[in-house]
């Protein structure tokens, strides 16, 4: 039994559009953070000024925006709604906005944890956090498989979430 879709459901192509942008940005984070891409920082303040760290910080901010405001009010959702969606046919069906919003929260936790651990000096924490989020964003953008959404539905079915 899946949750009822609210009347203000979202176009399911919007989160996929946002996931494509996020996957691209996360790929840049991974490339920038790979060993040999730059001199390894020693001090925490040096880690926080690395390009990969700064870009992932921006992505964390975007994930928190999506988790707090929802994907329709996320910058990628607004861009999709104003620029892309008017050029497309209406969606065949609407999607419940709660699972993608939960997926944004999961992305926030994964990338945020990578940032915190990287700041603490844990080797490869930044790359690992970005890589995990990249895989999820890539699967969503290319195949329409939203791991966070599936986790949300699993938690609803097991009555952990309502």
UniProtKB/TrEMBL annotation:
Boundaries of every DUF4395 domain copy: 10-157
InterPro entries per record: DUF4395 (IPR025508)
Transmembrane segments: 17-37, 52-72, 102-126, 132-155
Pfam families in the cross-refs: DUF4395
Record carries keyword Magnesium: no
Keywords associated with the record: Membrane, Transmembrane, Transmembrane helix
Record carries keyword Membrane: yes
Protein name: Membrane protein
